[in-house]
Automatic annotation (TrEMBL):
Pfam families: CbiG_C. Residues 4-123 form the CobE/GbiG C-terminal domain. This is Cobalt-precorrin 5A hydrolase/uroporphyrin-III C-methyltransferase. GO terms for biological process: cobalamin biosynthetic process; methylation. Keywords: Hydrolase, Methyltransferase, Transferase. It comes from Paraburkholderia fungorum. The keyword Methyltransferase applies. The keyword Acetylation does not apply. GO terms for molecular function: hydrolase activity; methyltransferase activity.
Length: 146
């Protein structure tokens, strides 16, 4: 069953392979087949790597405006996101926006992870019977550290 939404922030010209590696890293034990949608900021609409990743896996890409993203609080604001796209974060708010539905609110099940210049967060509208996130973490790989 497709129950999760994946928010993605990426550098310009990130490849589909970089994005896929970052998504798989972020998912950890979660099943890739559970992905319902991919979400990002609207200025990434023409990113070839993001489009190719979605097409390769038959996943819809939902795009959100700066205003929609800015309306949600970001746990760990990103100076890079603020400088480059004018919001405090991309992947977490986009994952939450994509997972929301009229029947349920969304919850982050994987907080922002960073891998090879791609940020990924995972949200679900039905996180578990107790309403708590399934998994929360921030994972950085060696290549992301200064």
């Amino acid at each position: 069953m497709k129950t999760i939404s994946v928010g993605i922030g990426c550098r310009s010209q990130s490849s589909a392979e970089q994005i896929e590696a970052a998504v798989r890293q972020a998912l950890g034990p979660l099943d890739f087949a559970q992905i319902n949608t991919i979400a990002s900021i609207d200025i990434k609409a023409g990113e070839p790597g993001l489009r190719e990743f979605c097409a390769r896996h038959g996943l819809p890409l939902r795009l959100f405006s700066r205003e929609q993203i800015a309306a949600l609080p970001v746990g760990s604001p990103s100076a890079a996101a603020r400088e480059h796209v004018g919001v405090d974060g991309v992947c977490e708010p986009c994952a939450l926006l994509a997972a929301q539905s009229p029947e349920a609110t969304a919850c982050l099940v994987v907080r922002k992870t960073v891998y090879d210049g791609v940020t990924v967060a995972v949200a679900a509208s039905n996180p578990g019977l107790d309403g708590k996130p399934v998994q929360t973490h921030t994972r950085y790989t060696q290549q992301d550290l200064p």
